[in-house]
Design a protein that fits this description.
Strands 7, 12, 13, 14 and 15 form a five-stranded antiparallel β-sheet that branches. A four-stranded antiparallel β-sheet has the order 17-5-19-18. Helix content is about 50%, strand content about 15%. By secondary structure, the protein is an alpha+beta fold. The longest helix is centred in the middle third of the chain and has 34 residues. Strand 18 and strand 19 form a beta hairpin.
Length: about 625
């Protein structure tokens, strides 16, 4: 079980999908996500409910955005069928879970919802919930309170169901210790190889054997289907030399993005907020302004009593109790009007009224630390950024026209090349694998070998083969797959048959040696490597094949032995001479190990629960539509 659990959590796919299942998923982008539901044809149906193409597309886009925000530049992973299927499976599981919690009348009270939201770190400042930050983030993401809180409530219901089943995964201490002893076990391992190469000299292959193999396997011994292509390539990077940036544009970018160039500068400020509520009437704003002006006058007269006046008048619950103190912060943290005011003040100064969407602020700058980056020091960096932005904008502007010309004038790539100043290039002969490898695009491979391009002689569609990069191709010449001549493959067949026969001899000797070792006999001419102490996480240089078999060796009697055929390399003998099966001495480490075991078992329970929901609900997937969406 532990091996299965471990394997399930490995690899790029598990890591990517893990990013999609965290609570709350609703904080960013959920508004658009929910609004799109039901406005497109269904890609999957779940017991009368549906998942639309738009929902599926939005999930892929959210994943793309997540990867880009984490610095990923190669997004070809998103074209992998297994990942796209997993994204759809995640949507199906979510839908099943939502249906189940509705049927079972799961409930999240207003108090539970409030406690959860106020504890979210996104909305906290100095360890306390800030209503100002709450409204600010929702405003930035164009979400209403009703939309956000409804999504969080639904998400918590689903989480309630998951955690309910996870809590059933109880492991008694005795069983946990027994399991952990097996999991944390160390073994002293040595290996000896009986190599196929050592038996090659004993093998003789007759010409008749080579000919017989060729005749039997002629259909497998074929040259792959090949094409020669013409292609045009358009990318934002090729447009860089033609982009120009003025001094004024650089200065404007510096001013508009001051938070990016703040260096290590931090400022500390206090404020008094006189709010006017969400969507205020003109009368409410005027009333708030009058009150703010009165407070400002009192502050100007008693600036040394700012903290006391903030406690008395400020309507920001997150900072009023601290005398309005907001702590240290850099550029871009606060709303723009507040940010602009603070970073234009000198220490000790008190601002006039500063209006934001939350109300009127009276600000006192109390401290500056660090320094911002000067304009001259970042000027080259900004110039490069703006040149690249202009190139991307130009590429985006031209991309649709490029695609249209390639499609509309489908008998030649010359019109597209001429329209955009590109060169029509030509490839050598390429197989399907070559096309996918050279252009790093499975989609381009499939396009090139499609009937439209291969048989009808049309241009391919313009395909995105990289970030801000488009390519279109056409087939100039085509060679169908054909059997190779006997003379082409004769030497290779002879070598293959020699290797095959030598491997059989090596395996036979290895199996005989293993039988003798298990009987306690000594076997000569085995070159055992010095033993190493390994555990499941530390292989100490041993191969994966060795490790996977070393922990299967029966250790009731030591030394214990195992053997395994290693493809055409020969036979691998594995000896386990000692076993250490102690739990960690440190109590904290022991408890952490038990928690990991409990967590892994809980994940299995939740997975089984989701599978049961899927089995008792009718789930149908439009595979043709899924494949079509994947191709796009």
């Amino acid at each position: 079980m532990l091996e299965a659990i471990r394997e399930r959590t490995k690899g790029w796919l598990a890591k990517v999908i893990l990013a999609l299942i965290t609570v709350p998923f609703a904080l960013f982008g959920i508004d658009q996500y929910l609004q799109g539901a039901g406005s497109n044809v269904p890609i999957a149906k779940i017991d009368g409910d549906v998942i639309t193409v738009q929902e599926y597309g939005n999930s892929l886009q959210n994943l793309r955005n997540r990867l880009q925000s984490e610095g990923q530049t190669d997004l070809s992973i998103l074209d992998r069928p297994e990942l796209r299927q997993s994204v759809l499976d995640k949507l199906i599981n979510d839908k099943l879970l939502n249906l189940e919690v509705k049927r079972a009348n799961f409930n999240i009270s207003d108090e539970q919802l409030s406690q959860y939201i106020t504890s979210m770190p996104e909305f906290n400042r100095d360890g306390k919930f800030s209503e100002e930050i709450y409204y600010q983030i929702l405003t930035q993401n164009r979400m209403t309170l009703k939309e956000f809180e409804g999504a969080i409530r639904q998400d918590l219901k689903a989480q309630q169901a998951r955690e309910g089943f996870a809590s059933l995964a109880y492991v008694p201490d005795s069983l946990a210790e027994q399991t952990l002893k097996a999991e944390l076990q160390s073994r002293e391992v040595s290996v000896a190889e009986i190599k196929t190469a050592d038996f090659l000299s004993q093998v003789k292959i007759e010409p008749a054997q080579v000919k017989e193999y060729y005749e039997k396997n002629k259909d497998k011994l074929r040259t792959p289907e090949q094409v020669q292509l013409e292609f045009v390539f358009m990318a934002a990077n090729t447009l860089l030399p033609g982009m120009q940036v003025t001094e004024d544009e650089i200065r404007k970018f510096y001013a508009d993005n001051a938070d990016k160039f703040q260096g290590d500068e931090q400022r500390r400020a206090s404020h008094i907020l006189i709010g006017f509520g969400v969507s205020p009437t003109p009368e409410a704003k005027e009333e708030a302004r009058k009150k703010a002006e009165q407070v400002l006058a009192e502050v100007k007269s008693n600036s040394d009593q700012f903290a006391e006046l903030a406690k008395k008048y400020s309507q920001d619950p997150g900072s009023a109790g601290n005398g309005g103190d907001l702590g240290m912060f850099g550029r871009g943290v606060m709303v723009k009007s507040f940010d602009d005011a603070v970073f234009s003040m000198t220490p000790g100064a008190v601002s006039d009224l500063v209006e934001s969407e939350f109300g009127y602020h009276i600000i006192k700058l109390t401290e500056i630390s660090g320094e911002s980056q000067s304009f001259e020091s970042v000027k080259p960096q900004i110039r490069g950024e703006l040149i690249y932005q202009k190139a991307v904008a130009k590429f985006t502007e031209q991309a649709e026209d490029f695609s249209n010309i390639v499609y509309e004038q489908s008998t030649s790539l010359e019109p597209a090349a001429k329209a955009f100043g590109l060169e029509v290039q030509r490839t050598p002969w390429m197989s399907r694998e070559d096309v996918a490898k050279v252009f790093k695009s499975d989609k381009m491979r499939d396009m090139v070998f499609s009937d439209d391009v291969l048989k009808e002689g049309r241009n391919s569609e313009a395909v995105e083969v990289g970030p801000n990069s488009l390519m279109a191709a056409r087939v100039v010449e085509h060679k169908p797959s054909a059997p190779k001549a006997f003379e082409e493959v004769q030497a290779g067949i002879e070598d293959f048959l020699k290797l095959e026969q030598a491997a059989k001899l090596a395996i036979k000797k290895g199996e005989e040696a293993l039988a003798e070792l298990r009987q306690g006999k000594s076997v000569k001419d085995l070159d055992w490597i010095p033993p190493v102490l390994v555990d499941r996480k530390n292989a100490q240089g041993l191969t994966e094949l060795t490790m996977s078999n070393a922990f299967k060796v029966d250790t009731d009697k030591l030394p214990g032995y195992a053997g395994v055929a290693d493809a055409n390399k020969g036979f691998l003998l594995i000896k386990v001479s000692a076993v250490e099966a102690a739990l960690p001495e440190d109590e904290n480490e022991r408890q952490m190990a038990k928690v990991e075991l409990q967590t892994a078992l809980a994940a299995e329970y939740v997975d089984a629960y989701l599978k049961s929901l899927r089995s008792k609900n009718k789930v149908t997937i439009n595979q043709q539509l899924l494949q079509s969406s994947s191709a796009n």
